[in-house]
Structures are given as structure tokens and as C-alpha cells.
Write a structure and sequence with these properties.
single chain, alpha/beta, Rossmann fold, GMP Synthetase, Chain A, domain 3, 3 domains, nine-stranded mixed beta sheet, seven-stranded mixed beta sheet
């Protein structure tokens, strides 16, 4: 029974050493070659003075060296802390401090942004080609709590609603979800997944990397998202699995329309989205494009992978996130902590083998979200359908109180998303002088489209109650998103405050 994530790669390298695991623009990497990189990196970490439970910050973009560093940390017992190299110097410095990092590694060989961070840190070349490392931070303290011994990585939340917190993800959780995801997708050595999702986030590490290693699939690895490159890979690089957030598909559709491209995807057999509520209109457009179901799941950084997934053998016509995966449990709970009636909306509570070990050195934040019985209060709103499938409604903090009614942004976004010319929509609330909240919709149009406001108002009157209708419609050139494609509604709210 494997107990640490690096053992997955060791097993693959022993079984099929010459099989290609990574396809990158600069070449390919076999399992054996990647394993050799892990051994080099692990020895380098030990030589630098890295100890078990030390935190090693990886300032990186997706590449073979990044994956090797992840596995090397596991091998020496350190906890990797992934940081997207495109973050600002201040953001990187803050995470280094919050993680109390022993060392920082930079994948400057493939990332100009990482190289700039390395220069600021006074990094020196590491033993692994294309990687540099900072001086050791002697003041960093190892962890001693036995309950945290299974920690594999610390994933810093994207901070869509506040300051990022360090989620302690376990080896057990990552290994479990790798097996679940590979099983649901029936991954084999014949599969290739397009892998642009940053492996500094749970979507990239769990759904992409761990599942591929478990199933023996390959990765068409990219450092960032490019619609043109994705279309090229679908047509010519035998991509069979396409995974990403809803915004990725929206950008892909916009590119196809703007360029009048004719997509080809001869090997594609599985299309999946997650990390945000799924708009019905977007689901329909994606399914029309690919001629196959768009599968959906619900997960979050605090759970190592998705807790709910739709199944390939029973694709859905609605936007439910499917049913709980093996070991996963969920409840829908009212604000007073009681289970709501079937079909009613409430907060989603979770527990299972993928649940985090807590927030790093933040007992207060951990206690704020944990409930008796080992339940984690997600802050997400959802409801169970008649067949027990989970529908994700939105964030509890994003719920708008208007005229005494609860307004769920996802419902309004779905209505506006069906309107002609709308590409993306995001709905937020902004306070009014009387303590009420005003509903504001931000709209990104399709390329070349114009907004007919009168027709949109008529559309809203037909489909929404008066208290749900936006008081304002704000056009925006491009929705703000994280590197992982998650919509940043706090930036939209900040825009309203500034105005």
C-alpha cells in the first residue's frame, strides 16, 4: 500500500521506465528520466539542509522540473508549497513568510517570471537543470505535531474572498483521489490529458497529475493557457482528456468564434470542468462544440480533489455535480446547523479521506470551519436534487440580501448567460445606504457583439422576480480570474467601491 505520493512515480518508473509521461514543447520525458530528476532534486534538498516537515516553496510554472521537485519534497519528507511564478513579488514574499519556508526553489529554466523571483531572492543554481534555490532560512522551524505527519503539501487558497490560507493536504487524500479520478475516467496508458492547470493548485495536482500517474496516462504539459495551443494539441497531439474551469471553455469558444477556427479532436473522449458553478448556456455550447457530454464535479482546496463527480456512464442534461465519490460524504445545512429539507438550499458540509489536516499554523481559522463529527463547513451553497445529485448554487459570502430575500448570483448569471451576445456574466452585491444590497451584473460580451440593453431588460423581466433583477449592468472587457481560472468576484466588488 503506497503511503506517499512519490511512490506512485517510483512504481511507474519501475514498471514502464521508457514510457513517455510528459509531452512538452521542448521535448518529452519518460518515467525513468523523471524519476532520475527526482533523485537528483531530493539529494540536492538534503544537501541544502532540508529536513522532514520543512516547507519548501516552489515558485514555478508547469514543467518536468516542477513535478520532479514536488516528488522530491515527498521523498525527503518535506512539504511542498506551490506558488505560481506569475504572482507579484509581494505575494510570493508573503507566502514564504506564512509558510515559514526553509528553502525556495525556482523553475527559471522555463519561466522568465520564476527567474526574476530567483534573482530577487539571491538564488544559486541547484543540481537539477533549470532550477535555482534560495539560501536556507535558518530560522524556519520544523513541525512536531504527530497529527500532521501525513502532510504532503501546503496549497495556498486563491484568496477569492480574503487573505490566502495554507491548506495542509495529505498524502492519503491525494493518493485516494488519484485512484478515484483515474477510475471514473477509466485512464490507461493510451490516454493523454492536456495539462495547463497550475500544479500549484489542487485541480492541477489532484485531478491532473495524481490521476495520470495512477492510471499510467501521459500529460501534454503547458505552463499557461493558450486557446490556440489547446486547439493544436487537440488536433495533433492525441489529447483524449480535456479538463479545466468553466472560464477556460468560455475563452476557448471565444477564440474559435473570433478566429473562425475549425476544431479537430480525433482522440478526445472525456471533457470535464470544475472549480466554479457551471452555467447551463456554457454547458450547452461546449457540448455542441465537442459532440459529447461536459462532465462536472465539485471540489475545493480543502479537499484533495473532487468530492462529487458526474459519471461517464450516466451523463447529465442538467448542471448537477453528480454524486459523492468513494469515501466522500456531504450534508446540506441551515445557518443554525440543522440539515435542511430535501431540495432546499443550505451550506455544503463535507467529510472524507481527502479532507485537509487543517490550515497551517492557524488554529483559529481551522476551528472556524470545522464542525463536530469531523465535518468541514465549506462556505458553499448547494442543494440535493431528487436523485441525490448535488447542485452547487454559489458562495455563502456571495449571497445577496435584497428586500429581505436571499438572492443567489448563480441563478441570475444563468439567465443572463442565455442572452444573445453574452460571453460571461458575474453577479455581485453592493451595499446601499438603507442597509439593503443592490444587485449588479458584470457582462463580458462575445467578440464583435453589442449589448441591446432594452432587450436584456425584457429578458430579465420574463425570467426573474423583481428583487432578483440587477439594478445595474456593467460591461467589462475581460473577467478577472486567478491563474487557475477561478473568477475573482472580490475584484469586481472593489471596482464598484472605487467607482
Amino acid at each position: 500500500m503506497r503511503q506517499r505520493i512519490h511512490e506512485l512515480l517510483e512504481a511507474r518508473a519501475a514498471r514502464t521506465p521508457q514510457a513517455i509521461f510528459l509531452f512538452e514543447p521542448g521535448g518529452t520525458t519518460t518515467y525513468a528520466a523523471l524519476q532520475a530528476m527526482v533523485e537528483t532534486a531530493a539529494q540536492d534538498l538534503l544537501d541544502a539542509g532540508v529536513r522532514p516537515t520543512d516547507r519548501v516553496v516552489l515558485v514555478a510554472e508547469n514543467c518536468a522540473a516542477h513535478i520532479a521537485l514536488l516528488m522530491a519534497c515527498s521523498r525527503v519528507g518535506a512539504w511542498s508549497c506551490g506558488v505560481n511564478a506569475r504572482m507579484s513579488p509581494g505575494e510570493v514574499a508573503a507566502i514564504v513568510e506564512r509558510a515559514d519556508a526553509r528553502l525556495c526553489c525556482f523553475t527559471g529554466g522555463v519561466s522568465e517570471a520564476a527567474e526574476k523571483h530567483a534573482a530577487r531572492a539571491g538564488a544559486v543554481p541547484a543540481a537539477l537543470a533549470g532550477v535555482s534555490r534560495s539560501p536556507v532560512r535558518a530560522q524556519a522551524l520544523p513541525e512536531t505535531a504527530p497529527a500532521l505527519a501525513d502532510t504532503a503539501a501546503i496549497i495556498f487558497t486563491s484568496g477569492t474572498s480574503g487573505t490566502p490560507k495554507g491548506v495542509m493536504v495529505s498524502h492519503r487524500g491525494l493518493l485516494h483521489f488519484g485512484r478515484v479520478s483515474a477510475g471514473v475516467r477509466a485512464l490507461t496508458g493510451r490516454d493523454r490529458a492536456y495539462a495547463f492547470l497550475p500544479m500549484t493548485h489542487i485541480f492541477g495536482i489532484g485531478t491532473v497529475l495524481m490521476a495520470a500517474l495512477t492510471g499510467g496516462a501521459s500529460l501534454v504539459l503547458r505552463g499557461s493557457f493558450s486557446p490556440a495551443d489547446m486547439l493544436q494539441a487537440l488536433a495533433h497531439e492525441q489529447v483524449s482528456n480535456l479538463l479545466g474551469p468553466p472560464t477556460m471553455y468560455a475563452r476557448l469558444l471565444a477564440h474559435i468564434e473570433a478566429e473562425r477556427a475549425t476544431p479537430r479532436f480525433p482522440q478526445l473522449r472525456y471533457v470535464y470542468t470544475g472549480s466554479a458553478p457551471l452555467d447551463p448556456a456554457l454547458k450547452q455550447r461546449v457540448e455542441q462544440l465537442f459532440g459529447q457530454p461536459l462532465h462536472y464535479g465539485y471540489g475545493l482546496s480543502e479537499y484533495a480533489g473532487s468530492v462529487f463527480l458526474t459519471r461517464t456512464e450516466s451523463p447529465r442534461s442538467d448542471t448537477a455535480a453528480g454524486h459523492a465519490v468513494e469515501g466522500g460524504e456531504a450534508r446540506i445545512v441551515s445557518l443554525d446547523g440543522h440539515d435542511v429539507a430535501p431540495g432546499d438550499t443550505g451550506e455544503i458540509w463535507l467529510r472524507g479521506p481527502g479532507l485537509m489536516l487543517g490550515y497551517f499554523r492557524d488554529a483559529a481559522a481551522t476551528a472556524q470551519v470545522m464542525r463536530p463529527g469531523g465535518w468541514y463547513a465549506t462556505g458553499d451553497l448547494g442543494r440535493f436534487g431528487e436523485d441525490g445529485a448535488l447542485f452547487v448554487v454559489g458562495r455563502l459570502k456571495e449571497m445577496i440580501i435584497r428586500s429581505g430575500f436571499n438572492v443567489y448570483p448563480a441563478e441570475i448569471e444563468a439567465v443572463i448567460g442565455r442572452f444573445e451576445g453574452v460571453h460571461l456574466c458575474a453577479v455581485v452585491g453592493t451595499p446601499e445606504a438603507d442597509g439593503n444590497e443592490q444587485v449588479v451584473a458584470f457582462v463580458e460580451l462575445k467578440p464583435g457583439a453589442a449589448l441591446d440593453r432594452e432587450a436584456l431588460r425584457a429578458h430579465l423581466v420574463e425570467h426573474l422576480s423583481p428583487y432578483k433583477r440587477p439594478a445595474r449592468i456593467e460591461l467589462i472587457d475581460a473577467m478577472p480570474t486567478t491563474a487557475n481560472g477561478k473568477l475573482l468576484k472580490r475584484e469586481l466588488q472593489a471596482r464598484l467601491r472605487a467607482a
